[in-house]
Amino acid sequence: MLKSFLIAVVGAQTVLSGASALFNHETCMLTLQVSKPAVSIKGTVFTSANAPVGEAHIFVVRGEEEALSDSRGAFAFSSWQKFPLTLNIDHPDYKAVKVKVENAEQAILVKLEKK
What would the pLDDT profile of 38-49 be if each residue is shown by its tens digit? Predict the structure, then answer.
């Protein structure tokens, strides 16, 4: 999926769809850069006894992407960020863990230890 924007000229104003902005086209030059396709980040969170951990919060340390693991410990989200990424995984019953992700093909298997 690519990030895209629609620009429409309406009277003396330019409306940018996909962003919360309104530009007067007589006084403003607008440059758009299309992002690279998003990549899917997938993984599994489990305990040291190999039991799945549901409701673990997984998020990119320097980003907005986040997910919760399901009852099988699985999680997935899309990202446009450059690799490597650092994920933070936390859950109220377990110690927080940071995981470095080098590429989208990397198998992300996270073991959490009880607090």
Answer: 889 999 999 999
Yes or no: say if 97 and 110 are a contact pair by the CB < 8 Å rule: yes
- Gap between the Cα atoms of 60 and 11, Å rounded: 41
Which residues face 98 on adjacent strands? Answer: 88
Task: Render 17-66 in DSSP notation, one character per residue.
Answer: ETTTEEE-TTT------PPPPPEEEEEEEEETTS-B-TT-EEEETTSS-E
Task: Give the DSSP H/E element, type plus range, for residue 94.
Answer: strand 94-101
In tens, the pLDDT along 61-87 reads 988 899 999 999 999 999 988 899 999
Alpha-carbon torsion angle 44, 89, 98, 60, nearest 10: 100
